[in-house]
Amino acid sequence: FIRAGNRQGTCARFQRGRPAATSLATRRSPPHASFTLGPPHVRGGGPACQRGLAPPAVCCKKSAPMPVTAADFKRALGQFASGVTVVTTRDPAGAPLGLTVSAFCSVSLDPPLVLVSIDRRSETVRGFDQSGLFAVSVLAEGQEAVSHRFAFAADKFGEGLEAGAQGLPLVRGALAHLECRVTARHEAGDHLLYLGEVLRLAA
Fold first, then answer.
1. Secondary structure string (H, E, C) spanning 78-143
2. How does pLDDT run across 21-73, given as a tens digit for each residue?
3. DSSP character for 18?
4. Terminal-residue alpha carbon distance, the chain
C-alpha cells in the first residue's frame, strides 16, 4: 500500500490496480449532493454544518436583524472622531444664519466640491435654499466655545467673526475658510445634503 496526504491532511489508501478508497464523510454523503459550510454566526451553523453534512437551507438560515434605535445609532457614530465646523449662510433679507456641523466632507478636487448635512428642522435650510450660498469655517482646537455658541446659543453672531468675500460670516482664527455656492440638494431621511462648489478658500 501507498499512503498519500490529501488537502485536509488525512490519508487515502491506494492499492495497485484498484481505485483509491473514499473517506468516511464521502461515503456517507448522498450522491450528487452539494453542501456548504454554515457561517458560525448564523442560526443552525452547528457541527453538521461545519462538517458540510447539512443542507444549505439549514446552515444558511439567517436570524432576524436587530432593530436600530436612534439612541444606539448616535452612540455608535459618536465613536467616530471628526472635525468640527461652523457653517453660515443668510436669509433673503441678508440676516446671517449659522450652526455647528460635524457632518462635513470633501467630495471632488476638480471641480472643488464639498458636502454638508443639515437637519431639515434647522432655520439655516431657508438660507441654503434661497441664497444659494454657504461658508464653512473649520474650527481649531481652542475654539470649543465657538462650537457651543453656534450649537446652542440664541445669539450666535457676536464677536470673533469677520465677513467673507460673499458677505457671509467667517470664524476668525479658524484653520480654514471655504466660501461655497450650492450646486445640488439631496434629501436623506431627516437631513438634507447640500453639495457646494468652493468659490474661495483660505487656510
1. CCCCCCCEEEEEECCCCCEEEEEECCEEEEECCCCEEEEEEECCCCHHHHHHHHCEEEEEECCCCC
2. 444 444 454 444 444 444 544 444 556 555 556 565 555 556 667 788 888 88
3. B
4. 79
Long-range CB pairs of 160-167 (<8 Å, 24+ gap) are 164/135, 164/200, 165/199, 165/200, 166/133, 166/135, 166/199, 166/200, 167/90, 167/94
Q: Which amino acid is at 85?
A: T
What backbone torsions phi and psi does residue 103 show, to the nearest 5 degrees? Answer: -85, 75
For 123-151, how does the pLDDT look when each residue is reduced to its tens digit (9 = 90+)?
A: 999 999 999 999 999 999 999 999 999 99
pTM: 0.65
For residue 138, give Cα distances in angstroms to 153, 176, 190.
Answer: 19, 5, 24
Peptide bond into 111 cis (omega under 30): yes
**Cα angle: 174, vertex 180, 181; to 5 degrees:** 165
